[in-house]
# Entry
Amino acid sequence: AQSVTQPDIHITVSEGASLELRCNYSYGATPYLFWYVQSPGQGLQLLLKYFSGDTLVQGIKGFEAEFKRSQSSFNLRKPSVHWSDAAEYFCAVGPLNRDDKIIFGKGTRLHILP
Amino acid sequence: SAVISQKPSRDICQRGTSLTIQCQVDSQVTMMFWYRQQPGQSLTLIATANQGSEATYESGFVIDKFPISRPNLTFSTLTVSNMSPEDSSIYLCSVGFGGNTEAFFGQGTRLTVV
# Structure
């Protein structure tokens, strides 16, 4: 079955510290992978995506993610977080074709300590 | 890419009433998706709306409760019928172009049922 697992429901880091949010997936074929961010009261914004090629992808706001096929993972990283990064982060897989839906993880809420 | 306008952005409704949420896209899309995000939860797909045909509902969602219209390639509506406090959620409209593209989201409609 297709699924996305984000094992951390909440993560708290200090401002300026590095960040890694974990994401593991189960998908029947080569996945298309995404990270979305949802700030309080806002819709979802795409941070980055992976389709093929270089397994380290760069996104907006200084985020990057690395696709590791052997580990079925697509972890999100940022070397130094800012207070404005406090938000909910969703990992997602798909769609492979026009009729497929995106499957979302349950999300990780990031808290930033001053 | 796509720009999605969703309205209303928020509403407070009495139980037993219905609310229709509108989703307008700035380009023609085949598939539009409606999601529900309950408080503190991830996104759950309600249904997929294809222009010219009946919407396809996910398990646990029925047409009588969430009727959907898709009159053309740029517009869709979702109605939340006979509302109860359990329907209090954020409802999000999404479009995707299939293949190696991401999904785009509206800002969401925050619904509170009292």
User: Anything to note?
Assistant: The mean pLDDT of chain B is 91. DSSP finds no helices and eleven strands in chain B. Chain B has one domain: 10-113. Residues 9 and 109 of chain B are 4 Å apart (CA to CA).
